[in-house]
Amino acid sequence: MKNWKIIGLLFLIVLSGCSTKTADTLEEDYTKIGILLSDTGLGDGSFNDSAFRGLEKARDELGILFTYEEAPDGNFEQALEILVKQENDLVIGLGFTAQEPLEAVAKQYPEQEFVLIDSVSALENITSITFKEHEGSFLVGLVAAMVSDTKTFGFIGGVDAPLIHKFEVGFQEGVNYILPDATLLSEYAGDFGNASLGKSIAEKQIAEGAGFIYPAAGFTGVGSIQAAQDKQILSAGVDSDQFFVAEKAVVTSMLKNIDVAVYDIIKELVEKGSISESAYEFGLADGGVGLAPIRVKSLTSEQKALYDEAVEKIKSGEIVVSTTK
C-alpha cells in the first residue's frame, strides 16, 4: 500500500510539473497587448471605454492576452515602462496627450513595437492611428440643425488643441450646411475629467440661447449632456453611443470607432506577425467614424434623404469637411 502511495505521489508531482510547463508555454504562445489609457481612465463612457471594448473583442475572438495601465498622477512614462517590462508584443498609447511620453519611451526601447492613437509620430517603432472626426461631427451638426428649434448651438471642447478643433469645425460646417445664418457658441473647458465644469459651461450656453449642445470633452462632456437634459434641450454624445447618459436629450452620438481600430490593428499583428503600415487614418468611407441611431427626435423623409445625400458626398469627396479653424 505504501508503494502505491509513493507512486501516486510521484505521479502528482510529475503531473504538476507538466501542468506548470504547459501553462508557461501557452502564455508564450499568446500575443500580449498592453495599453495606457488616456487621462480619465475606464468608465468615461466614451474614449477609453471604446478602446477597451476593442481589446475585449480581440481577447474573445483572437485569443490575445491584454493588460492596461492608468496614470491619474500624470506619470505616463512610468506607466508605459511598466507595460514594456511586462514583455508585451505591442504597447498602445491612447490619446494625443500620450504622444510625448510614448515617444520618450519608444526611443529607450527601439525594439519594442508601439501604437499611438489620435496623433501622428515619425518614430519608426510607432504606428499612428488617427480618425476623421470632422466628418462625423459634420453629420452631428447636420442633424442638430434639422431637429433644433433654435438657430443657436453650443460646442464644448475638452482642451484647446488641433484635434478638438476638428470636432468643432466639422460640427459648425454641418450646422451651416442647413442653417447658414446659425450662431455657434464655443468654449474649451481645459479639462477632460470634470463633469461639474461641463455642466456649468453648458448651462451658460443654454442661458445664451443654445438649443443643442455638442461636447467633445470626455467626462467633462457627460456633465454638459446631463445639463442639456435638465434644461430640456437637445444634445449629442461623442466617441461612443452616449444615449444612456441622458435619454431625453441625446439625439445621436458621433461614433469614433476606436474599438474597431484597436481590434483591427491587433488582428493584423496576430495574423501577420507585424503591422504593415506606419500610419492609418479612418474616416466615414471606411467606417472609422459615423453616427449612432437617431433617437428622441425623428427626421422627416426629406431630411433623411438630405442626410443620406450628405453622407455619400462626404464619402465621394464632393463635400470636403475642414479640419482647422
TrEMBL record:
Gene Ontology CC, one term: plasma membrane
InterPro entries for this protein: BMP_lipoprotein, Peripla_BP_I, PnrA-like
PROSITE patterns assigned: PROKAR_LIPOPROTEIN (PS51257)
ABC transporter substrate-binding protein PnrA-like domain: residues covered: 37-321
Record-linked Gene3D superfamilies: 3.40.50.2300
Keywords for this protein: Cell membrane, Lipoprotein, Membrane, Signal
Compartmental location: Cell membrane
Pfam families xrefs: Bmp
Signal peptide from the UniProt entry: 1-23
Bilayer topology term: Lipid-anchor
Family according to the record: Belongs to the BMP lipoprotein family.
Protein name per the record: BMP family ABC transporter substrate-binding protein
Source organism: Mangrovibacillus cuniculi
